[in-house]
Amino acid sequence: MRHVEFKRLMPPETSVAVSHPLCDALEQAITRVFEKTDTVIHVEPFSENPSSDISTQRN
Asked: Which pTM does this prediction carry?
């Protein structure tokens, strides 16, 4: 079993009712491609200041 976990940055005005079905579809697509995968997507609002978003941070 493999584990995939990531943050999905969404516009702050995006409702839970919209963001969760999108994440469910992403999780299903990942599972179709990579069988036996446990996928967790954390939805977070992105900020107007890109330097504070996780997407721009590097290790």
From this structure: 0.68
